[in-house]
Amino acid sequence: MAQRLVSVWQPFFLASESQGAAIDAATELEDLGYSRIWFSGGFGENVAPRFREILDGTTRIGVATGILSIWHSSPPEAAAFAKDAEQAHPGRFLLGLGASHAVVVESGGTDYRKPYSRMVQYLDGLDAAGLPPERRILAALGPRMLELSRDRSTGAHPYFVPAEHTAEARAAIGPDRLLAPEVAVVLDADPTTARATARQYTSGYLALPNYTNNLRRFGWTDEDFADGGSDRLVDALIPWGSVEKVVAGLEKHYQAGADEVAIQVLNGGDDTAFPADAFRALAAALI
């Protein structure tokens, strides 16, 4: 396993209308010692300029698409962006790719069929465009996609998973591939308000079959998925409480085999605000 890394996954970096505010936040995370910033690639036809803006505005921290939808950006476009970023900032940009979700893809008029085959074809296109496997990572959940991430990328970036999935993913991809799960957290010691914040986040994801089907493999049921998630499921997915309790929840993923945990601080649904105090507190405890 590689050296343990602590990263950030935060929608603020794409949602913020202020380039300056995004760069200021990224610079602080860099100074705090975080290894990488992940945020959504959005659903435009090209990689969002914000990824390059943050690379240009910082000096060391990595930046990754978490994730770029393979239905919305072509392999030549994605490869061109990644190769240009690599030339300007060697080793700092990672192209995270995912198959997205039927409801998202079909809302744009595209038929969501055979996502695994689509991913294989996309990777073929990146190969043809000259982007090496070590500069890309897959948002893998199930066994086939995990194996594909092992064979044709630098590793796996699972999202919305319990620590049990992290252990399964490590077994599937082997010891030499990067495993970087996203883990959302709530820094709030009150069980009622902490779980309410968590459910603002979980309710949307529990409506997506890709995630619920994955969770079923670990014994979760429709009863757990109802009303934003049972207490037991929310607690398994979203570490909440004091800094110490949240860190203990994150440690479960490292103990299960994660090289890097991409921490998403839940912010009450306000993606335009950056939770700086929370990331400062977590950095002091983890880095």
TrEMBL record:
Residues 20-259 form the Luciferase-like domain. It holds the Pfam family Bac_luciferase. One of its GO terms (cellular component) is cytosol. GO terms for molecular function: oxidoreductase activity, acting on paired donors, with incorporation or reduction of molecular oxygen. NCBIfam families: F420_MSMEG_4141. This is Probable F420-dependent oxidoreductase, MSMEG_4141 family. It comes from Micromonospora saelicesensis. The lineage of its organism: Bacteria, Bacillati, Actinomycetota, Actinomycetes, Micromonosporales.
